[in-house]
Amino acid sequence: EMKRIMSRSFDVLKRSIIELITPDFRVPLASVARYSGEFEQQIGEARTDDDLKASLLGIQTSSIRLSRLIEDFIALAELKTGEANMAYDLRMSTISDIGLLLYETGQLFESQAAQKGLRIVCPLAEDLPEILGDRVTLTNSIQRLLDVGLSYYRPSLNSVNIELTAVYLPDEQEVRLSLQFPFPLPPEEEATIIQLLAVNDLELMTASHHLPGLSIVKGYLNLHNGRLLLRTSPTHFTFCMAIPSKEATSAYASTY
User: Fold this and answer.
1) Cβ(230)–Cβ(195) below 8 Å
2) Nearest to 101 by CA among 72, 71, 68, 128
3) Burial 143-160 (b: 16+ CB within 10 A, else e)
4) Tell me: the pLDDT tens digits for 181-238?
5) Pair type for strands 174-181 and 227-232
6) Which of 22, 28, 24, 23 has its CA nearest to residue 62?
7) How far apart are CA 47 and CA 64, in angstroms?
8) pTM of the full structure
9) Which range, of 88-92, 156-160, 161-165, 186-190, averages the lowest pLDDT?
10) What is the DSSP-derived secondary structure letter of residue 234?
């Protein structure tokens, strides 16, 4: 009976994750097939390298997107099965330079932002309290939020700065890593993301192309007893990672 229940639970898990990501798999797969077909036709007709560049770039771009979707699939599966919890327990350590972690991760996206005419601005915060956490999943979370935020880019007359800040809120005993993008969220996406942040079940969120990534960030922050927040305005929006300080985490652990 226990084996049957476990098998059924696994089937439900597999189906829910596939339903979450499957719609996005079709686009890059179709693109790879289309550009590959064009490339095959152009080989015999091409006179210069430039004649083949468009098809090769299309194959590369679609392949990268497909690779990221597979990474999302694996990350969601690890969160749903508890493997992410075990990995977190093994890697958890005291992090005394969370401001530097944000700064260095932001630097990795400077060229990507520059392609859209944007700049990454991140003052280095050095006076933050320690946190207990996993550098791998925190770095991955920042990267995913930058990816998602940049995907909503639309030219505007606002600032060109993507502002990354790290601050400590003593009253909440939280370190907050904020990523502010200088353009607004589409209204329909804003409503869907707000709905995602209000629930704890990853299976409920299937409507947005970017929710797998945000669901993973939310899952990683849950491992840290943290939260993913969203602030919006007519001119910009901000993702905020709220993570309890080491002192707050230790106090909570000693209570339970």
Assistant:
1) no
2) 128
3) bbbbebbbeebeeeeebe
4) 999 998 888 988 988 888 765 554 444 445 688 989 999 999 999 999 999 999 999 9
5) unpaired
6) 28
7) 27
8) 0.75
9) 156-160
10) S
